[in-house]
Amino acid sequence: MSKGLITLVNPNMVHPPITPYALDILTTSLEGDGFDVEVVDLTFHRDDWRNVLREYFVDRDPLLIGATVRNTDTIYAQQQRVFIDSHRDIISEIKALSGAPIVGGGVGFSSMPFALVDYFDIPFGVKGPGENILVRLANVLLRGEPPNSVPGLIVNQGAGRVHRVSPMPVTVRRGRGTGPSALSFHPVNSTTGYIRRSGTALKVDNLQYYQGGGLGNILTKNGCAFACAHCVEPDAKGAQFTRRAVRAVVDEMESLTAQGVYDLHTTDSEFNLVITHSKNVLREVVRRKESSPDSPLHRLRLWIYAQPVPFDEELVSLLAAAGCAGINLAPDHVRDDLLDEWKVTAGGSRYYTFDDVHAVCALAERYGIPTMVEVLLGMPGETAETITECVRRTLTLNAHVVGYSLGIRAFPYSPLGIRLAQRCAGKDTVPGLQSDTATTPIVLKPEGSCSTVEYERQFMFDERGQHRPVYFLSPDLPEDPETVRAPNGRWVNTLNLLWDLVPEADRHRVMLPTLPGLTPDDNNYSDNPFLLRLAGLGYTGAFWSHWPRRAEIMRQAEFDLAARSQTG
Ligand code: B12
Ligand code: SF4
Predict the structure, then answer these.
(1) 568: pLDDT confidence band, cut at 50, 70 and 90?
(2) What would the mean pLDDT of 476-503 be, rounded to a whole number?
(3) What is the pLDDT of residues 5-28, one digit of tens each?
(4) What's the distance, Cα to Cα, between the start and end of the chain in Å?
(5) Percent of the chain beyond pLDDT 90?
(6) Do 172 and 235 meet the contact criterion of CB atoms below 8 Å apart?
(7) How far, in Å, from the CA of 239 to the mean position of ligand 2?
(8) Whose CA is nearest to atom 62 of ligand 1?
């Protein structure tokens, strides 16, 4: 007999649509524990989500409702779009339709969870992997026990008072937690194959996402033990690597490819950190392909996120044999002086040089695997000279695509965000702090000097409660002093410099930020006009793989549209 119904809601309205993988993971664990789970997926209901919710809740009375918040905002400095207001609208509608308690979670949510339980006005939140905590919460509610007995659960007491039940499950650095060893359970379900479905009512429809967005997804391990200055992931996902059982991962790849979802993007923070595990996963894929000519894995196209180190020929040959279709590499910059303070392990050491980036690109090319190289410009210390060198050297890499972003979103617990708040000390702004919607200088309070809700909120809201996502752009870039002084200054000179630095002949294979921030040139996937066309035309695989042909694809799309309007 079922223990009761849990409803999981996906409020992500960004297109091209990305499969809410988290909801398959949560469903697997909840169903495994005897609960019924229904997924109300609003991604394909951007215009009629209210009706969908109303119809759903007419005859449902769940024990608990979970909402996943994958992205808080675009984290793209040229288009600082915030998503949480639309999430709040959805949550408010749910509250009007059901009396069930609501719990929030997701990687975006986890980047500022105290502020978001408060903003959404929901009783519970989970920071980091949620499957095991959610099962505990559901059982506690079922038995009528106090939620305060669920370790790691974030509980909203109202009026801005939020606390987290200790001990905390996700290893958190800087003494803010005690780590999984302090718990009787680990937050990640690392042993079970997550159940992936297509075409089942009220479950995530993996094939529909693949047909609408061209990508499926797969997790081989959770978390990241490194400490790159701009990054939220060690804090939001867990500061240690939790490997999933190899068999479970490959079973899932097999299940997805058998359903017709052939392009799978890894959702690890970085696929190659813990290289022995990465190789074991790939070996198992290769073994199954070799042992059966009928294995659906022969159709697998794997797309990975990776760092330049560790990488060796064995990994690349295994990637090729397993069906890797592309490597998205994130060296971020070429200059050691900038990277020394930025791309580091938890112990603070650098882990690659630009020579390693060259070596990976060359090796991948030898094995016929295209690469995309991601570059993040504007970190502290960036100048016209360092940008010039970075663009010049990254263009020599022979990568399929080089993506340049300018400006870094500062988050409450990214090392950069923490440092900026410490430097402001609640008194002064720091040159380079910027937000398009800021009307007064951005002055951040350091952690510990205010409540956690307040600390997190200031990275997303101003004092009046208006959205003001905080960004950082190096003040040493060639901007006028007024631009740097203005809290909402736009680094236009630097944008122009960037465009000037990329020769016309390379433009087709380069992602370059533009002033509006949402054009077919921008490395911003949220409703990007090129990607929407791409998805509409049925292209599959990582979006960047089609980037060099975007002018042609856009022309084809215009042509098709014109032809259809004539025949229609
Ligand atoms: C892979 C990836 C992509 C790929 C996706 C490919 C694919 N087919 O899946 C691509 C390149 C397309 C992409 C695009 C974008 N991405 Co992205 N992406 C990721 C990445 C690396 C993995 C996401 C993922 O699926 N994780 C695996 C799932 C299983 O984990 P999870 O969602 O965190 O779920 C667990 C917990 O969070 C929790 N949980 C989740 N939901 C819930 C709900 C409840 C109720 C509970 C209790 C718990 C819970 O339990 C889950 C299971 O353990 C993450 C970083 C990361 N390591 O997670 C960034 C990340 C999510 N992306 C991010 C962003 C901003 C974007 C874009 C908006 C960027 C842009 N401007 O274009 C777009 C949005 C696209 C869209 N349509 O939503 C940011 C979000 C930051 C923030 N605060 O908002 C992240 C964190 C990257 C970063 N370092 O900043 N992305
Ligand atoms: S950018 Fe650095 S900290 Fe973030 S996931 Fe990658 S390696 Fe880990």
Answers:
(1) low
(2) 98
(3) 999 999 999 999 999 999 999 999
(4) 53
(5) 93
(6) yes
(7) 10
(8) 71
CA of 11 to the centre of ligand 2 (A): 26
pTM of the model as a whole: 0.97
Pairwise CA distance, residues 199 & 205, whole Å: 6
Instruction: Give backbone dihedrals phi and psi of 254, rounded to 5 degrees, phi first.
Output: -65, -45
Classify residue 463 as left (phi > 0), alpha (psi -120 to 50) or beta.
alpha
Tell me 506's DSSP state.
Answer: G
Helix-then-strand count for the chain, H and E: 20, 19
Looking at the CA of residue 189, tell me the nearest atom of ligand 1.
53
The per-residue pLDDT for 313 is 98
The pLDDT tens digits of the residues spanning 65-104 come to 999 999 999 999 999 999 999 999 999 999 999 999 999 9
Q: Which ligand is nearest to the CA of 350?
A: 2
Query: Which one of 7, 46, 70 would you pick to mutate in the ligand 1 pocket, going by the greatest count of ligand atoms within 8 A of its CB?
Result: 70
Per-residue pLDDT tens over the stretch 171-197: 445 444 434 445 567 899 999 999 999
Q: Which residue's alpha carbon is at the smallest distance from atom 4 of ligand 2?
A: 231
Q: Of all protein residues, whose CA lies closest to atom 7 belonging to ligand 2?
A: 226
Give the number of the ligand closest to the Cα of residue 228: 2
- Among all bound ligands, the one having the nearest atom to the CA of 339 is 2
- Rounded to whole angstroms, what are the CA distances from 351 to 129, 228, 465, 518? 26, 11, 40, 33
Query: Is the pLDDT confidence value at 559 over 90?
Result: no
- Distance (angstroms) between ligand 1 centre and the Cα of 59 equals 32
Q: Is the CB of 12 under 6 A from ligand 1?
A: yes
* Ligand 1: centre distance to CA 100 (Å): 26
Phi, psi of 312 (to 5 degrees): -140, 175
